[in-house]
Design brief:
Helices cover 43% and strands 17% of the residues. It is of the alpha+beta class. The chain has a 4-stranded mixed beta sheet, with helices on both faces. The radius of gyration is 14 Å and the shape is globular. The N terminus is likely disordered.
């Protein structure tokens, strides 16, 4: 079942990729961020203080970074995109936590996950990502 979900995950990347112009389905680590972009205040703060920074982009440059967004305003994403995000959530965010960052290897195995975001927590997240990627 995990292999099927991972293949689905890779297939969905074409519509979900948010950091790099090019996709490769080699042995890259995947970072998935579950977010509520228009209603989750910690998600909005995390985007400003962490995701949009050069430090984050440099640290995650060799990964595939995906934002699985669950906006309250359904017009912000297509129904196809919402369906893809729901598939990711069923595999990696069954509790429905926001924001939640999950780092998986190329086989779909979870290497680490972190839930929530408080003000000025970006350094903690950068350390979490760095340590998880170095495993």
């Amino acid at each position: 079942m995990k292999n099927i979900l991972f293949l689905l995950f890779l297939t969905l990347h074409l519509g979900l990729r948010s950091q790099s112009d090019s996709l490769s389905f080699n042995s890259k680590t995947q970072i998935i961020l579950f977010s509520g972009s228009d209603w989750c205040r910690p998600c909005m703060k995390m985007k400003r203080e962490l995701i949009d920074t050069d430090q984050f982009k440099a640290l995650t440059g060799n990964t595939n970074f995906v934002i699985a967004d669950f906006p309250q305003n359904n017009k912000l994403i297509s129904s196809k995109q919402l369906n893809q995000n729901e598939n990711l959530a069923s595999a990696y965010n069954q509790t429905g936590s926001f924001p939640k960052m999950v780092i998986i290897d190329a086989s779909g195995k979870v290497l680490g996950e972190k839930i929530g975001y408080n003000s000025n927590q970006h350094s903690e997240y950068l350390l979490f990502i760095k340590q998880t990627l170095e495993q």
